[in-house]
Amino acid sequence: MDGYDVKAAQERWRKVWDELDLFRADDRDDERGRRYALTMFSYPSGDLHMGHGEVMALHDLLARYWVQRGFNVLNPIAWDSFGLPAENAAIRRNEHPARFTFDNIETQAESLRRYAVSFDWSRRFHTSDPDYYRWTQWLFLRFFERGMAYRRESFVNWCPVDQTVLANEQVVGGRCERCGSVVTKRELTQWYFKITAYAQRLLDDMAQLEGRWPEPLLTIQRNWIGRSEGAYVDFAVEGTDESIRVFTTRPDTLFGATFLVVAPEGGLGDRLCTPEQRSALQAYLEQVKRATEIERLSTERPKTGVPLGASAVNPATGERIPIWAADYVLADYGTGAIMAVPGEDQRDWEFAAAYHLPIVRTVQPPEGFDNAAYAGAGTSINSANDEVDLNGLGVEAATARIIDWLEARGHGERTVNYRLRDWLLSRQRYWGCPIPIVHCPECGEVAVPDDQLPVLLPDLRGADLAPRGNSPLAAATGWARTPCPRCGGDAERDTDTMDTFVDSSWYFLRYCSPRYEDGPFDVEAVRRWMPVDQYIGGIEHATGHLLYSRFFTKVLYDIGMVDFVEPFTRMLNQGQVINRGARMSKSKGNGVDLGEQLERYGVDAVRLTMVFAGPPEDDVDWADMSPAGSLRFLQRAWRLANDVACPPGVDPVGGDIGLRRTTHHTVRDATELIEAYRFNVFVARVMELVNATRKAIDSGCGPADPAVREAAETVSVLLSLVAPYTAEEMWAALGHDPSVATAGWPSAEPALLVEQSVTCVVQVQGKVRARLEVPPGIDEVRLRELALAEPAVRRALADRGVRNVIVRAPRLVNVVV
RNA sequence: GCCAGAGUGGUGGAACGGUAGACACGCGGCACUUAGGAUGCCGUGCCUGCGGGCGUGGGGGUUCGAGUCCCCCCUCUGGCACCA
Q1: What's the rounded Cα separation, in Å, for the pair A284 and A23?
Q2: Across all strands, nucleotide nearest A335 (CA–C1')
């Protein structure tokens, strides 16, 4: 009898579980508490990989724990099924993207069932289903009505390979996040969500996530939103009625502003430019556009720019200062214009040095400045005029004073700026949710009426989908041409589709009522289940999906559709599964196939390995793991159940007290450890219980003792969270009906948690010299006597006198000499 | 450069300010075996004169007592990066 047949068990229990239908969430109200466990839904680009193996093992542990605790648990799954991989595959194979998508969904669904994740399969859906994207469109229109979705022309990130625009969040290090090609800029009219309107609320509401979301995740979001406090300052343009508004975080350096710089592409440069400089600006603009994002991002690159010929007036000094255009100033941050203070700012200093512009010192030279050049170029100035004097003030006080003055004189105002940009949602691709807008020559942008939703995708496939720089939908002229819903005249549909992050910004709401037909979700069902109690997924979604979902939730709150402002109460970012110190990749040849691991060790051993590897948020290096060891442990646990010689139903009271104590301590610890997400330590405790039970059977109370049965049953229930097949095998071997998954969480008997004796450590000068077994209730005086009487303590003391004795009964005595 | 987080045996990792290294992997030994990559048992931080000494990246500090708290430094990982 070596162990059980893992594969046969997987076959057997899957059928039993399907029949029992164990994990269906109950929409009816009852006395049970409710829990909503969410894992990031899957993108169907192939079969499940090792990353899925980890996240699903962790997610399911908690979901199954809640089931065992008796909660009514919602644990749904769906597919994020629009997107580029399906479209690219369709082009390659000359077929419809739906084909690739649905094949992969079926493959993944089958794998997830085999992996024994406790999903409520009745709620399954996918985002490319018209029954789903109809409501994505409906939600878009609600945003549109409120001015939260709008169209504008601007320079956008363009991926030359995928032939589509990218959101800022999808540009990583100047490259397309998906295909890795170097991103360029294009001027296009595109749809945006006005997420910037929610910047402050996205920051403020983090207060309720503090301590519940991982700190690194909150930090990333905070930095991404990038709040900075400062002021707008208006500079009059000489010889015109115009003025240029700049944003600065250091208005206290205004006296040192010796020139202005505007972004070349914002239109501002064009307006200010004198006729003589126009051709120079044009040439510069061309040069800037050619530069790739990577070149532009390089801080090593020397500063470039052109003078616009115009001048402005520094409101503090009254001095005439030149206006330049340079690409180190960004069009879409602040006002697209800055006041340059080369005596204070490294970048301005570099620019001034390159073009021999005046430099004056206000407070102190920025760090790392070329002092010789600085001293020669600059003159120290007096930061004061007839009305305001900043001399001798610290940054804070000077800032406050100058802003007060600017506001009083109408030269500017206090303000806050955010790094966050609006969310560009248009994509020039086919396999996405169509934007439900009609462009009418008479009426402009007209919403498709709600009762005409969904705007269905036309049936395109193969070559028709090939990227041409505009949307494939534009080629479907029969589809695009449509009467204007308002005036009935000839009009055109919007031919872009939405970023798939739109689809995923509300899917967790759809789960609450997945077949609802009168809206995106049943408000009552959402009230019942939301917000999500536990969300698990990768931290790579920090500035994308997680931020967008928070934004969507807030807009829905403002519309009055939900009564909470944060969708995910608790968040866990699991680490990645790597191999031999690096992310798995084809080029490195270090890929590990989940299916192969499952084939070799079985589902339970792989799940156990993932959970036991370490803290859930740490990366798992598969090369350091031992799924074979996990399998050995599971077989060991299983043998326990088979060795039990005490019949079911026998009262454990009267069983071996030592083993019973271990069992009940394990139960108490297990509960605390799971609540604290210390899953790896939880597994270690279960291992200890298995070891103790083995010992009891072989060289202790023997297999017929009721305590052995109690221990084995406890192991079975605890293991059901991680190794559902093994747990079920054990449960059956112990003479119970399935399923152990709903057997109920054990509770620790307080009487069995009381220690009989504890080990007291006796230290001399903080070093351990002896250990004593003492009763837990021992009094301090007695313990002190025992400790001082220990031979090892006396030896360590030698003839030195005792100065002090710290007694922390019953665990510790420290003798100080 | 700025902002986070982390440095513990050969390895993954444990440790309410109170026994450093739980639990595993690996390794060594023993038992059972025709055999074992099965199973069970024992051992396993380093040094040692077997009394003990040294050990949580380095250096200081607080404390009766520091892996844990504070300060400085080093290294690594992640995020942002010409954001004014």
Answers
A1: 64
A2: B84
Each residue of A479-508: pLDDT tens digit? 999 999 999 999 999 999 999 999 999 999
Q: Which of A103, A97, A165, A107 is nearest to A128 (CA)?
A: A97
> A299 or A720: which carries more pLDDT confidence?
A720
Q: How far is the CA of A578 from the C1' of B77 (A)?
A: 14
Pick out the nucleotide with least CA–C1' distance to A303: B82
Tell which phi-psi region holds residue A373, choosing left (phi > 0), alpha (psi between -120 and 50) or beta: alpha
Which of chain A's residues 321-340 bind strand B, using a 7 Å CB cutoff?
A: 327-330, 333-334, 336, 338
Instruction: Cis check for the bond before A454: say yes or no (omega within 30 of 0).
Output: yes
Nearest to A262 by CA among A319, A311, A330: A330
Which one, of A678, A500, A522, lies nearest residue A133 by Cα? A500
CA distance A589 to A591: 6
Interatomic CA distance for residues A184 and A173, integer angstroms: 12
In whole angstroms, B14 C1' to A702 CA is 30
Predicted TM-score (pTM) of the model is 0.94
User: Within 13 A of A208's CA, how many CA atoms are on the CB side?
Assistant: 12
Q: Measure A679 CA to B69 C1' (Å).
A: 27
Judge residue A151's burial from the number of C-beta atoms within 10 Å of its C-beta, 0-12 exposed, 13-18 middle, 19 or more buried: middle
Instruction: Please state whether strand B lies within 7 Å of residue A616 at its CB atom.
Output: no
Does A816 contact strand B, using a CB cutoff of 7 Å?
Answer: yes
Nearest residue to A435 (alpha-carbon basis) of A718, A140, A719, A182:
A140
Distance (Å, whole) CA A435 – CA A448: 9
Buried residues in A399-435 as b, exposed as e (16+ CB within 10 A): bebbbebbeeeebbeebebbebbbbbbbbbbbbbbbb
Distance of alpha carbon A49 from alpha carbon A108, whole angstroms: 10
- A157: Cβ under 7 Å from strand B? no
The crossing angle, in degrees rounded to 10, of helices A545-559 and A130-145 is 70
Q: Are A506 and A434 in contact (CB under 8 A)?
A: no
Euclidean distance between CA atoms A479 and A477, whole angstroms: 5
Asked whether residue A346's C-beta has any atom of DNA/RNA strand B within 7 A, the reply is: no
- CB atoms under 10 Å from CB of A250, counted, come to 20
Per residue in A623-641, is it b (16+ CB within 10 Å) or e — as a string? eebebeebbebbeebbbbb
pLDDT in tens, A708-738: 999 999 999 999 999 999 999 999 999 999 9
Tokens 């928070």 correspond to A550
Q: Is the CB of A757 under 7 A from strand B?
A: no
A814 CA vs B60 C1’ separation (Å): 25
CA A318 to chain centre: 50
Residue count (chain A):
817
Q: Report the DSSP beta bridge partners of residue A389.
A: A384
Interatomic CA–C1' length for residue A373 and nucleotide B2, angstroms: 26
Q: Given this model, what pLDDT does residue A711 score?
A: 96
User: How many CB atoms lie under 10 A from the CB of residue A242?
Assistant: 14
Rounded Cα distance between A322 and A732, Å, is 85
CA of A768, C1' of B19: distance in angstroms: 7
**Distance of C1' in B1 from CA in A207, Å:** 29
| The nucleotide closest to A246 (CA, C1' atoms) | B84
Report the distance separating Cα A492 and Cα A534, nearest Å: 44
For strand B, list residues 50-109 of chain A whose Cβ lies within 7 Å of it.
Answer: none
% of chain A residues with pLDDT over 70: 96
